Amino acid sequence: MRKLPHKDVAIIGLGWTGAIMAHGLAEAGLDVIAIERGPWRDTASDFSPAYAPDELRYHIRHELFLRPAQMTLTFRNDARQTALPIRDWGAFMLGNGVGGGGLHWNAETWRFLPSDFVLKSHLTERYGATFIPKGMTIQDWGVTYDELEPHYDRFEYLCGTAGTAGNLKGAIQPGGNPFEGPRSRPYPTPAQKQPFSATLFAKAAGELGHQAFPQPSGNMSQAYTNPLGVTLGPCTFCGHCEWFGCGNYSKASPQTTILPALMRLPNVAARDNCEVLRILLDKTGKRATGVVFVDTDGEEWEQPADLVLSCAFTPFNVQMLMLSGVGRIYDPATKQGTIGRNFTHQVVSTAQAFFDPKTHRFNPFIASGAIGMCIDDFNGDNFDHGPLGFVGGGYLGQVQTNGRPIETTPVPAGTPTWGAKWKAAVKENYNSSVYAGSGVHASFYAYDDVFLDLDPTYSDRFGRPLMRMTMDFHENEHRMSAYLTDRYAEILKAMGARQVDKLPRTGHYNVADYQTSHLCGGAVMGTDPNTSAVNRYQQSWDVSNLFVIGASSFPQNAGYNPTGTVAALAYWTLEAITSQYLKRPGPLVQT
Amino acid sequence: MRNVNRRELLSGTALVMFGTMAARARTVQGAIPWAPAAGAPPRPVLSGPWHFFTPAEGRTVEAIVDRIIPPDPEAPGGKDIGCAVFIDRQLAGPFGRAEGRYASGPFLTGTKEQGSQSRFDPAAQYRAAIRAVDAYSKQKFDGHAFVDLAAADQDAVVGAIEAGTLPIEDIDTKAFWTMLLKNTREGFFADPLYGGNHDMAGWKMLGFPGARYDHSDWIDRHNEPYPHPPIGITEAPLWSPGRPSGVSDGR
């Protein structure tokens, strides 16, 4: 193994968090290397509008994603089963390459509710400790909304997020989300324009007593130049957003907001197509000395560094800790150990609504990734759970991102899946139906029997054990999904639909059916080293010069898309490193 | 600490070449990397004979896709729109080889929640399934191959694939059906450059505008029929000689 010259900082992964940390630490004067498993991707080279709108290539054949042959996970519903490898992606999609998930996301840029960050305390105080279901291991984050607010704000102003404020410094604003936490200033750009279906949804929701607002969007409503001097252009509603790169510089991504400025800093370098195999620890096991990565020639390199940041996607942050011997792997039998604990996903459901084609023409292909009108009345603890017998919630919205016909040709329940009747139903309903894949976007709280560990049988191409995910839905989530989907269907009905087919989340968790790519937890943050892998600054309790940054830190997942919170946490950690850690390296929280 | 051996090296090297991104590791510094002609436009399929199917297999698949999506007076069926050509070209390429799939054993039978665990790639599955369709047809219908059956009898055979009652050696019939149905729809609705959706007839049937990238002037026009014909990545009906007069793109 060859040894490279020392760097101040080695960053594993160059997605949103890697790019944010690299930029901030380089500005602070540190010498930074970012090591990325996948290829470099750039708007000008890779996302020509002439061939970007290709549903087969990008959405169906997964051009931009990690290949399971490179790295996958094994899966089982419960610990009595034998986990088997996910051979083809289904339930979630894992990014690959520079930009990471920030390249292929829809750019739905939410903040979590203030109560989400103190979830256990909040629910216990309002409903009593016995209201929390048995086996549910929710906990407080160790960081509050108020502490994160400046960092949410910083990310939104980096991205030019389009939206309507609902709460400005405590004053509720018309047209925005009245349930959101106070924000220090309005969104940097006005909300996107909305298509017919979203407008109709907002009207119907209002008639039912709910308060609709535009989904906060990282698809630009107008040109925007961010504080780094990088400019994004207005979104053209092409309807090819999620799982695609944007050819218009209209979707906030590391490419369109940070990388052009980052790569011009003289003290920043990046390696692409290089996979970090493990973090190196010194003899005490308490200090990281760098990382080992392998390049495309199969050559292994040691990259020494004073500070290591694991900025990989959720399960790969957890895997990096396990493969490197950082911390103790969670054991569901004894409930001891923290690495792999409180792994979660998202509970997504929807309903399809069919309208009279003579009176309704939705043109579903006119859309953006984060378009849509939403209500937050049934998210978090915005509604009284006492009589309902479950905890958790989500936003409901007509957030339909596309009318791409391989994927989006809804037909009423009972229609055959093939033959003349199917064909006629597709034709009749294509332009007069509403189908948001994640119309009900709900929380996934943590349980003691949902976790990650190392698979005993299956390994990757370098012989490293795959992550084994053990995950199922629990009764609480089924009840929540049924309740929220009913509320959602009521709104669709009130829009004037002649038929509404509900699709609540039922049965077991299934890796073959897409849900969202919002894997969370497994290396969670907190105030107690017995129940968290990292402290409130995402600093490893065990190795103080290692920070583990991303949705892997979420103690449980809230009813929102996670990226806004992932980025806010990255900025929060960046501030802690630059203002505290660099002055006095060592644990930022004493145990 | 061991070095990665030669076999792993080769597989590792191949792995970063999935899709169109043939890339080697490098260090990037000073600016965003840029190279002229770095883009990877799609390659339109070649017309002409089958690439993967034998002529007999091709005829069988054409007959199957024409029952899955039958012709009607307003829109072609799966055969004429090119679904079988699409599937043929897909099976001859990375999809048929299951390139990028996690292909390490052991191959065990799992629950449906665990997803496909088949050791066979799509190309092998189609080959076995076509053989099974003809065997089943001959057994049920007096020795007639699938292509020679009346439409109603063909529907019965397709229904048996859907129901999982048509046995395919070593293959989970229901899982094959899921793939067949999806591939047929792909052939009907994917960009024409992949060999199906001939003349964008699938898109015209829906009113889907295809590869147009800018609907800014339509986001505010609610509940109006969208008037513009589709455009593909490499073609548009308006460019064809003999196009209907009076049809205008409007741009």
Strand residues, percent of chain B: under 5%
Low-pLDDT parts of chain B are 1-21, 244-251
Q: N- to C-terminal separation of chain B?
A: 63 Å
Gross morphology of chain B is globular
Please report the distance between the alpha carbons of the first and last residues of chain A. Answer: 36 Å
- Biggest sheet statistics of chain B: none
Quickly count the helices of chain A: 13
- Oligomer class: heterodimer
How would you describe this protein?
The complex is a heterodimer of chains A (591) and B (251). Chain A has 591 residues and is an alpha/beta fold. Chain A is built from 13 helices and 23 strands. In chain A, strands 1, 2, 3, 11, 12, 13, 14 and 23 form an 8-stranded mixed beta sheet that branches. In chain A, strands 8, 15, 16, 17, 18, 19 and 22 form a 7-stranded antiparallel beta sheet that branches. In chain A, strand 20 and strand 21 form a beta hairpin. The longest helix of chain A is centred in the last third of the chain and has 20 residues. The two termini of chain A are 36 Å apart. Chain B is mostly helical. In chain B, 37% of the residues lie in helices and 1% in strands. Chain B contains 8 helices and 1 strand; from the N terminus they run αβααααααα. The longest helix of chain B has 19 residues. Chain B is globular, with a radius of gyration of 22 Å. Classes of the chains: A alpha/beta (591), B mainly alpha (251). Chains A and B meet through helix 2, helix 3, strand 5, strand 11 and helix 11 of A and helix 1, strand 1, helix 6, helix 7 and helix 8 of B. Strand 11 of chain A pairs antiparallel with strand 1 of chain B, so a sheet runs across the interface.
